[in-house]
Amino acid sequence: MRDLVRSHMTSASPIVIAHRGASGYLPEHTLAAKALAHGMGAHFIEQDVVLSRDGVPIVTHDIYLDSTTDVALRFPDRARPDGRFYAIDFDLQEIRRLRVHERTLVDANGQGAAFFPERFPAQPALFTLPTLSEEIALLSGLDQSRGCCTGLYIELKSPNWHRREGLDLASAVLEVLNETGYWNLPEQVFLQCFDDQTLRQLREELRAPLPMIQLIGENSWDEDSEVDYDYLRTTEGLSYIAGYAQGIGPHLTHIYLGKTASGAARFSGLVDSAHACGLQVHPYTFRRDELPKGVDGFEELMDIFFRQAGIDGVFTDFPDIVVNYLRNTRAAT
Q1: How far is CA 148 from the centre of its chain?
Q2: CB 255 within 8 A of CB 309
Q3: Catalytic pick from 38, 61, 254, 282?
Q4: Half-sphere exposure in the Cβ direction for 260 (13 Å, CA)
Q5: Catalytic residue among 8, 19, 101, 162, which?
Q6: Catalytic site includes residue 162
C-alpha cells in the first residue's frame, strides 16, 4: 500500500519542504539534490521555475544563470549590459550545455568563492539544469519505486519580469502540471509566489485548483512586485491573502524576533494572526550553517519554531535533520 503524504490541509503535523532539494548536501536544484531529498523523507520538494528563451519551464532559483552554472565560460559574449547571464536569453538546447555547481559569489570573470564554503565543492561542475517536466518525472518515478508520494512545491520566479520579456510564466507552469497529471492533485502540489497578483491570476483567471502560498519578503528586496510586504503581515493584509491563498511563506525573522534578557524567545504574533485567518505558515529557510542571531544550534532553532511558535511546515536545506527531529518529537509524546 502506498504510504501517502499526510493531507497538508488538515494534518496537525508539520511538513518538511526540501528547499531547492537537499541543498545543504548537493548543489541546489539539481536532480541529484532532489533525489537525495526524496530519499531523506521530505514531504515536499521545492521547484523554483523560470523560462528559457523558447518558453520551457526550467528549475533554477534565479532568472540569471551565472551564480550556479558555468554559463560565463561557455557563452562569454552573452551577458546583458548589467553583466548577468539571463536564462531567458538561452534556448533549451543551449541551457542543456551548461554545468551546474554549488552557488558562488561571482566576480567579474564569472568565477567566485562558494556561498557556503563547508558544503559540496564548487568545482568541478558535475550537474545539469533540469526542466520542470524532467524533475516531475524523476520524483514521480521515485514515488513509484519507493512506494511513497512526495509533493511538489513550485515557486514562480519573477513573473512580472517574464511578462515584460514577453512570456507568461504562470500559464507555462500550469501547462506542465496538466501534461504530467499534477493539475488535479491539490494534496500534492503547492504554488507559491512573492507576487500577489500572479497568485490571483492563477486562482481567478487560470482557475488553478491547487493551494497557493503567498511568499512574504522585505520591501527592500525588490522582488519584482508592487506588493507591500509590511502590509501583508498585518491583520488586514492576512485577511486579504486569505481571499486567494491557503498559506503564507514568511522569512523566519518575521516570526522569531530574538530573545529577551532572560533568554526567552520573542515572537511577532504573525503565526497566531495567520492561523486566525485560516492560513498555514511555512517559514523559510532553516539552515544549520546560517542560524538566526541568538540561536546556538539547529535543534534549538527547531524547538523555537515547532514547539513554541507552532508553525505548519518549514523550508530547509537539511531535510533529513528536520524529518528526524519531527519523528523523534512524535515518538516522545
Answers
A1: 21
A2: yes
A3: 61
A4: 6
A5: 19
A6: no
Could you report the per-residue pLDDT of 53-104, keeping only the tens digit for each?
Answer: 999 999 999 999 999 999 999 999 999 999 999 999 999 999 999 999 999 9
pLDDT tens digits, 153-190? 999 999 999 999 999 999 999 999 999 999 999 999 99
Q: Is the dihedral of CA 89, 93, 94, 98 positive or negative?
A: positive
Closest listed residue to residue 45, CA positions, set 327, 260, 317 = 317
Tell me which DSSP letter residue 303 carries.
Answer: I
> Is 251 one of the annotated active-site residues of the chain?
no
Domain range for 145 is 3-63+129-332
The CATH number given to whatever domain includes residue 239 is 3.20.20.190
Backbone angles phi, psi at 324, to 5 degrees: -65, -40
**Tally of domains within the chain:** 1
Query: Looking at 53-62, 111-120, 234-243, which range is the least confident one?
Result: 111-120
Cα 36-191-120 angle, rounded to 5 deg: 25
pTM: 0.94
Does residue 108 form part of some domain? no
What are the C-alpha distances in Å from 31 to residues 50, 131, 136? Answer: 16, 10, 10
> Strand 189-193 relative to strand 212-216: parallel, antiparallel, unpaired?
parallel
Is 296 inside any structural domain? yes
Tell me whether residue 77 is in a domain. Answer: no
Cβ(135)–Cβ(59) under 8 Å? Answer: yes
Is 31 a member of any domain?
Answer: yes
